[in-house]
Every structure is written in C-alpha cells, then in structure tokens.
Write a structure and sequence with these properties.
The chain is α/β, with parallel strands linked by helices and 289 residues long. The protein contains 10 helices and 9 strands. It is 35% helix and 17% strand.
C-alpha cells in the first residue's frame, strides 16, 4: 500500500510517498530513502526489497513533483534538510532510519547536524563533498569544467564532461586538465544542443551540495549512528574518495557496499547496479544497530 501526500509550505509543496502502514507494522522506525538530484522514482527498485518495512521516499524541492514557490533554483543542503525535517515531523512517526545517496547523503548529514533527534541510523552513500579532498581546489576546477561544457555546448557535452570527471582515478592532476574534451558520442550522448541550461547536475545550481563542509563536531555529538558507505566500484574515483575522506573526518572507515555510485538502481536510468546485493548489504548494516 502506497500513499502519496503533499506537505504545503509558503516556499514549497513537498510530495512524499509512504510505502506501508503508519504506525509501522514491525515496530521499527520508518526507513526514509532520499537522493539529490534524484527524486523518489529512483528508489523504486531498492524499496521493492524492503516490503517488510514502511519505506518513505520524497521528491526534493524543485525536483520531480515538489514545486517551489520561492522563486529560487539553487539546491542547498541546509534548505533540503529543513524540508526533510518537516516531512519527518508531518509523518508523526519519527525518528526514522535513513538511507541517503549522493547529494541526498549531503542533505542527510546537514539534517543530523541540525536535527540530531530525527534519525536513529543514517547510511550516507557516497556524499560528493569536495572540501574534504586533499585536491579540493582541483576538484572545484574540474567541476567548473563540466559546467562550462554544459553552458557552451549543451547537455550532451556537459554529461560527457561529467562522466569523464566522475570516472577519473585519483586526484585531479595536470594530466586530467590536459585531456581533450570528451566526445558525447563516446558515451551514447547526443551532440545536438537543445538550448536548455537548467539541469541540476550539470549547471551550478547544486554547487552548494558539493561545497558543503560537514560539521564533524555536531555529527559526532549526535545520537545518530552514522555509517558512511562507498561502492566497491567507486574506489579511487571522486565520490569514492569523498566517501573515504568524509568517513575519516568522522573518525571511521567507510563501509563498502556492492557496485557503483548508483549501485542500488534497477533499470530506472539505464545504468543498473546490483540492487539485490545492495539491499542485502543495506539490511545487514541497518540490522547491526
């Protein structure tokens, strides 16, 4: 049973889905799954492995079904965290367990720092936090290169540049910046420019996410059990490195999960991971609390 609800605020109408009963049938907290810029649709496969749990998914403000009314287009972790906090309050069933991926993991870290009573266990999967990297300035330059490719030549060029950046092994060196611009056709991307410039991944609309600086003192003081997760195929690439560095910042080692950055995905976006194995690992980590 899935119930779709809308939390209306002066700034945004946040749409969220409740998969299962509230109060929960098993007595455990709801399992809240969040992403960024991915919306609730990206968790369909993963949620299907947790039919014994009440699962909550949502669309971040300005994405999917959640409509902004504040006239802004940027995606800021603190703002997104306030939205998630409001949804948890609206559920009346908190605190929750949380699986958060990519930019959603950054939102989740901001949530725990600001509202430590909201989450019992957080599995933060591959937060793309550049300031924790030893080559943070070079990572910022690489990110700007993606934005520039997108702004000058459109989505295909921008996405090709993004794939080149996120698949680069190790620190961003002079060798990386000396590469020619990748051909979108190499990745099956269109070279034609459709004129749009509003992609949250390729524009600078989400730079506040990758610029986020975790409050290690607040996170370590929170009652929340925080697990930083990294995909086994992400070792050495940017999100793998940020995961390891974020874990070290919190005095822990990153917990290795199956597959890649989207390892929990089924066929939703054409780059499936290993969702069954991923779900098994996630269940194991949550049950270890």
């Amino acid at each position: 049973m899935t119930t779709t609800k809308t939390l209306e605020t002066p700034e945004v109408d946040v749409v969220y889905d409740v998969h299962g009963p509230l109060p929960t049938a098993d007595g455990r907290p709801p399992l809240f799954m969040i992403g960024q810029p991915m919306d609730a649709s990206g968790f369909r496969t993963l949620a299907s492995y947790f039919t014994d749990r009440t699962v909550i998914t949502y669309d971040p403000r300005g994405l999917g079904r959640s409509t902004r009314k504040d006239g802004r287009h940027d995606n800021a972790p603190d703002v997104q965290a306030a939205d998630v906090h409001a949804v948890i309050e609206a559920l009346g069933a908190g605190p929750v367990e949380m699986f958060a991926s990519s930019g959603g993991a950054v939102t989740a870290l901001a949530l725990v720092a600001a509202h430590p009573g909201d989450v019992t266990t957080l599995v933060a999967h591959e937060p793309p936090i550049a300031p924790v990297l030893p080559d943070a300035a070079a990572a910022d330059r690489a990110r700007a290169g993606v934005r520039d490719a997108y702004e000058s030549k459109g989505w295909g060029a921008g996405m090709a540049a993004f794939i080149a950046m996120t698949s680069w092994q190790g620190e961003f060196t002079d060798e990386y910046f000396a590469q020619p611009a990748p051909d979108p056709a190499m990745f099956g991307m269109p070279s034609e420019d459709d004129g749009s410039r509003d992609d949250p991944l390729l524009s600078d609309r989400s730079w506040a996410i990758t610029d986020y600086r975790p409050d290690a003192a607040a996170l370590n003081a929170a009652p929340t059990r925080i697990v930083i997760a990294v995909g086994e195929e992400s070792q050495g690439v940017m999100t793998g490195r940020t995961s390891v560095a974020t874990a070290e910042l919190l005095g822990q080692q990153a917990t290795v999960f199956p597959s890649h950055h989207g390892g929990f995905l089924g066929p939703e976006f054409g780059h499936a991971g290993q969702p069954a194995a991923f779900a098994e690992k996630l269940r194991e980590v949550l049950d270890a609390a």
